[in-house]
């Protein structure tokens, strides 16, 4: 452990809820910025590529820097790292705000500001995740994970609606001020909690960053069950990345932009309800079984997204798919927390995030080519699959994307079966991996 929990479990959980609330409103603010900037850039350029580049500025810096953020989360007080991350993220937003006030904003200004904010999120997120282990006992991990996911879903459920209203009432630059305000509020809450319960001692070892990074990689790689679990989820996230990239283009071929927005929000409600359920009632034991079953069901719902052109059916499939995600995420987090030394969780979480991000980034990189050059031509009128797969999926604009969704969903269900059969993953249930047991045996030889 990095320090002693001197408060009662109830007191610590209450303080965790305060920190969670600050992060909740901060996530809403971030969602306001991303949604508003997406609309702004699309109106200015009329190209989807400019919007995709904003997403890359959001995702790429954390992907590259999270290992260093994780090292710092283990080296320093994790609450201090959260404050540095939140306040630092506001600097990039202030840059965009002032450039807009000057009236000579250019696209590269926006990309630079968003990238700068994302750099600081690479230091904030590992500290936030590891802080759960600092403050709470093991039996409250599942509830905490559910609440964290609940906050994350607000970016997709609350922010688009709220941003749409605010953009009719004020200029976009003031949206940035709202986001900055939420970051400051979140920081002050963390500072207050730190003051009331005191600092958490950190085990300081005189290593350089590369040495600590290698130590984190060793801690991650020695637990073969965790490695297998993370690689499996990385494969799943590749297919989820296809959904993130192609859901809107598919729907826009079927209905209006307004209806697409409503459909997205309803789908996000599924994640909200699933997270709320876990936050209120927790999650039972047998996390590997919950993970495998949830993945299998999620794959079926994913495949249903491509089976119909009826917007209500697609929205219902999306809702049920997103409702399964909190159960998947919670099971993964609990299994990892039980099997990784808390004093090294910051750097291990950052490595895990980097590995799993890779699945989404690869998906973003190949999605356009697969949709435009491979799958859509197959299901155009007269296309090679128009008279076979087209009978089920349909023929015309966007039906190649629908076929991609069906294949992706079936692949996720297949992955769930492979996961269930993996003995190294199943042994994580007991909080001990084969590698950990071997280490204990080896250590006993020197006693």
TrEMBL record:
Entry's Gene Ontology molecular function annotations: transmembrane transporter activity
The keyword Chloroplast is annotated on this UniProt entry: no
SUPFAM superfamilies, per the entry: MFS general substrate transporter
Matches recorded under InterPro entries: MFS, MFS_dom, MFS_trans_sf
Residues annotated as transmembrane: 12-42, 48-68, 80-101, 107-123, 174-193, 226-248, 260-281, 288-305, 311-336, 348-371, 401-420
Domain Major facilitator superfamily (MFS) profile: 15-424
Subcellular location(s) per record: Cell membrane
Pfam families per the UniProt record, alphabetical: MFS_1 (PF07690)
Membrane topology: Multi-pass membrane protein
Main location group: membrane
Keywords in alphabetical order: Cell membrane, Membrane, Transmembrane, Transmembrane helix, Transport
GO CC annotation terms, alphabetical: plasma membrane
Protein name: MFS transporter
Source species: Methanogenium organophilum
């Amino acid at each position: 452990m990095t320090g002693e929990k001197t408060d009662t479990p109830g007191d610590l959980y209450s303080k965790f809820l305060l920190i969670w609330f600050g992060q909740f409103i901060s996530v809403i603010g971030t969602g306001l910025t991303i949604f508003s900037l997406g609309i702004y850039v699309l109106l200015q350029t009329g190209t989807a590529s400019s919007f995709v580049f904003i997403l890359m500025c959001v995702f790429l810096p954390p992907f590259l820097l999270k290992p260093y953020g994780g090292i710092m989360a283990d080296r320093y007080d994790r609450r201090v790292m959260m404050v540095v991350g939140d306040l630092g993220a506001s600097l990039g937003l202030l840059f965009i705000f002032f450039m807009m006030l000057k009236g000579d904003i250019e696209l590269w200004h926006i990309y630079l500001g968003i990238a700068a904010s994302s750099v600081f999120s690479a230091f904030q997120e590992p500290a936030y995740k590891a802080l759960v282990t600092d403050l709470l006992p093991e039996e409250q991990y599942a509830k905490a994970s559910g609440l964290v996911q609940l906050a994350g879903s607000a970016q997709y459920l609350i922010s688009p609606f709220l941003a749409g209203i605010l953009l009719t009432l004020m200029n976009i630059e003031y949206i940035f001020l709202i986001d900055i305000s939420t970051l400051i509020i979140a920081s002050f809450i963390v500072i207050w909690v730190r003051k009331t319960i005191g600092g958490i001692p950190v085990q300081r070892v005189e290593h350089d960053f590369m040495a600590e990074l290698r130590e984190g990689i060793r801690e991650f790689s020695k637990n073969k069950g965790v490695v297998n679990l993370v690689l499996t989820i990385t494969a799943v996230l590749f297919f989820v990345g296809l959904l993130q990239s192609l859901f809107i283009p598919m729907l826009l071929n079927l209905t209006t932009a307004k209806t697409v927005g409503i459909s997205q929000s309803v789908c996000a409600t599924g994640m909200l309800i699933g997270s709320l359920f876990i936050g209120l009632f927790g999650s039972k034991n047998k996390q590997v079984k919950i993970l495998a079953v949830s993945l299998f069901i999620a794959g079926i719902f994913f495949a249903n997204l491509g089976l119909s052109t009826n917007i209500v059916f697609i929205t219902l499939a999306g809702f049920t798919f997103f409702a399964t995600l909190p159960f998947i995420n919670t099971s993964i987090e609990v299994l990892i927390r039980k099997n990784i030394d808390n004093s090294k969780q910051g750097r291990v979480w950052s490595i895990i995030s980097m590995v799993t991000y890779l699945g989404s980034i690869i998906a973003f990189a190949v999605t356009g080519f697969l949709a435009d050059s491979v799958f859509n031509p197959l299901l155009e009128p007269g296309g090679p699959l128009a008279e076979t797969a087209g009978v089920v999926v349909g023929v015309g604009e966007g039906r190649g994307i629908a076929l991609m969704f069906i294949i992706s969903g079936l692949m996720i269900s297949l992955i769930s079966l492979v996961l269930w059969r993996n003995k190294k993953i199943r042994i994580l249930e007991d909080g001990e991996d084969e590698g950990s047991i071997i280490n204990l045996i080896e250590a006993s030889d020197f006693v």
